[in-house]
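Entry 12.
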Amino acid sequence: MWCIGELTAEYRRCRYELLELYARPYDPREPVICLDEKCKQLLRETRRPLPAKVATLAKEDYEYERAGTCNIFLAVEPRGQRRIAQVTARRTKVDFVAFVCRMLRRAYSRVRTVHLVLDNLNVHWRENYTPNHASWLNMAEIEIGILQRHCLARSAAEQATLTTAVAAWQEADRKLSRHYVSQLTCSCTSPRLSAAERLCCITT
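Predicted 3D structure (tokens):
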């Protein structure tokens, strides 16, 4: 459940700045990239599951053994239709900087300016666009929710297993992306639309 922060002047300023950033005309030279992370607990089965049979589902025991945690960094450029995800052992400042540098080198080495949308996690630097208690304005958080439903519902005991699953999810999405609707039915560039209405168009 999201916690809506107190509607102070600072909260409103940060929120409207972010909405205006999302509503800008798309410029591939200045991509808007949303970045978020998710801690994932690794769970190991204590009993071997009974395999599925004809007309019978597989059966798994409810007991499990904790096998540590790992982290998933996910960056999405909604207007540029790009997503980059990486599973890491930790979520430190070093890991965060390494992920951002790797992303910039591989996908954005020729752009002029990057607008990076972050929440308020302590591994980030002081500049970010998301006000306190408003991380839901970060589109990467929505993307992580989709990843959770599609890919992370099943438990994994090893980081390598999770890495394989996330990579398979990205590859499947890439192959199926040609079937997605590419044109929005609303006019997102209309001057009569507010920033919030344009955001609805962008995220639809």
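Annotation: The chain has one domain: 29-47+62-172+185-203. The chain is about 35% helix and 20% strand.
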